[in-house]
Specification:
8-stranded mixed sheet, binds magnesium ion, 20 helices, binds adenosine-5'-diphosphate, alpha+beta
Amino acid sequence: MSDIIYLLPDAVANQIAAGEVIQRPASVVKELVENAIDAGATHIKIAIADAGRTMIQVVDNGKGMSETDARMAFERHATSKIKDANDLFSIRTMGFRGEALASIASVAQVELRTKRDEDELGTFIEIAGNRVFRQEVVQCDLGTSILVKNLFFNIPARRRFLKSDNVERNHILQEFYRIVLVHPDIEFSFYDNEHEIFNLAVSSLKPRIEQVFGSARRKLNHQLLNIQTQTNLVSISGFVGKPEFALKQAYQFFFVNGRYMRHPYFNKAVIMAYDQLIQANEYPSYFIYFDVDPQTIDINIHPTKTEIKFENEQAIWSILSATVKEALGKFNIMPSIDFDREGVPDIPPVSLSKTNIQPPQTTFNPSYNPFSIGSSSYKRPQMEWEELYKGFEKTPEKAEDELAQSPLQEQKSFGELAIDESENLGSFFQLKGSYIVTSVKSGMLVIDQRRAHIRILFDQFIQEIKQKQGVSQRLLFPESLSFMPEDHAFFEQIKPELRYLGFEFTYKKANHYQVLGIPAQLQTTSLIVPLLNDMVERVKNCTGEALDIVHEQIAISLAETAAIAHGLILSKDAMQELFQQLFANPNHHYTPDGKTIMIILSEDEIKNRFK
Ligand code: ADP
Ligand code: MG
């Protein structure tokens, strides 16, 4: 039998490698921008079209490449950044594998223009599927411009594997944040389908964070606490959010030696430092920068891996935990820990993480968000009707009897909860401004007034969206509204549905709108902007993109905003009205997110208490 093992041709080998390095448009953006940074650029411009599917361009003013280097750059394992294996342990550049350009050129159509300062003319190379189509001398600016068109044009399977434009754009933005947050000394601009969505001037770190994540509404400047620690093992610096700035979707970034990393173990150290300070379903934002000796970490695990292995993980955990706690003021009562001691690490990791240090037990919650009543992980409630009716079984004839006697139209749906008309027909009593109490055949019925109203409104809003018939009220003073670029797409997604409910918007400029009209049911204008942000947040967190789920999320959010509050005193008529509307609704036992609306204290239970 003849030999059967062949060496793969370069083009095939590159395509295989590309599968590892280039998984989606965001990987291309990451690799190209990192190259620009390694080339010493001070201004980097990124442009994408169709979430990077059809076009990604990165233009830098870095040092450029010679004619030969430009051609070499597309060869596999061609790099100017390391020369031998020893260099691997002292990497300070973003790239070093020499795989990115070769991989990109094997799965896309690439045009490169590059010129060094010392050269009169630059080089132009057109390459696609690893075949060079053109190489010529051109007039161009100092630096490098790389245009990547039709990613995966030659691999339909990978093209199909890509997610929706929203998802792919979001991946690109995440990569963008990870880079711009370590390079405030570099100017970045970002164009999405020709709209400029970021223009980040050179600044220091805090203003850069503010430029990216702040807004007129969210003044980040006042919400970040400085952290700073120097030890022999590690320097930690950056910012952590004040507890009241906790969000359901927080901004959480770790960087080590100028490189983004994920580190679930260190994340835990930060989260635990906030223990008792923030609500269960909210998270702190943080931007934390570690500096360590490159010899003590391993970044060579995988080309796209963002997990990084630390030699002194335990000790760094403790230092991080102490640093964050100190910033949060948890150590105010304790002597502050002196990290400048010689011979680190002798900070006992266990004693720091599990000490008897008592965090201040204040119950402050200045960021209480009236829109977050529902849990964000919405689940359709399992309605166990039978359970509720246990012990109340009656014969069908008897139930019909009651029906016939009742003066109330909606009695039909009251079922076993028929009002006890013999005693106090339609008599309602409000308890603590929050609960409506009335007598029913089987005992005492207590209704949570706010939850009841949420249920009623929710069903109304769902109807309005489906039938496209919401009533609008014009605002005297339009409210302005803006979104983060990655949220913008989600807002666009729900905008038509919001119209059906009575919202009216005009588009001002990139990511900015004005609200001109709102649903008639909304009593107050001050809640509109948080409401719309809450809706976007909910839709973002939906697992599917099914329209029904989107409708539900919008309706819940709106119902929670428009519903009457606890503590609102209701007239007898208002209570009766609410009661009737609630029972006209077949789902009167639970709110749309599954909370109990009413309880019944049975006559037997009451009797028992008097025994
Ligand atoms: P790596 O970055 O790992 O070295 P790449 O394939 O990304 O590998 O790039 C190969 C080489 O091409 C780099 O080492 C660098 O010399 C050169 N290069 C790539 N992009 C640029 C750029 N924007 N400016 C200057 N040189 C570049
Ligand atoms: Mg590179």
